[in-house]
Predict the 3D structure of the following.
Amino acid sequence: MKTRNSLSKTPIRMIVLTWMIFTLSVFSAAAALAASASSIDRDSKAALDKLYQNTPGAKALADKAVAVLVFPSIVKGGFIIAGQFGDGALRKNGKTTGYYRSLAASYGFQAGVQAFGYVLFFMDDA
């Protein structure tokens, strides 16, 4: 038998689940419009060049790294329920060796849209 508290939480869970499915389906549709490999490469190289110009230590770190994963633009947006999407490239020795996609959904007190870049330096193969 359900208690009164569990009955009152069920509609909220269904609303959150519905919004999360909706958000992910919208971003899945955006995947069909994803950038081509050449534009991801071009944008990744431009993002790295800008990072190296503005942060001198980043170039030294990249020279020691085994690989660098670059997401030149990740777009996040929503109201209460949010999603984010971006394409990136894994670069080794200055050349792209693979392509990756970042997808995420979240809920909570949030509103708005933002775009940001993201770079990960892998310092060893592990």
The CA atoms of residues 52 and 60 lie 9 Å apart. The beta strands are 67-92, 95-122.
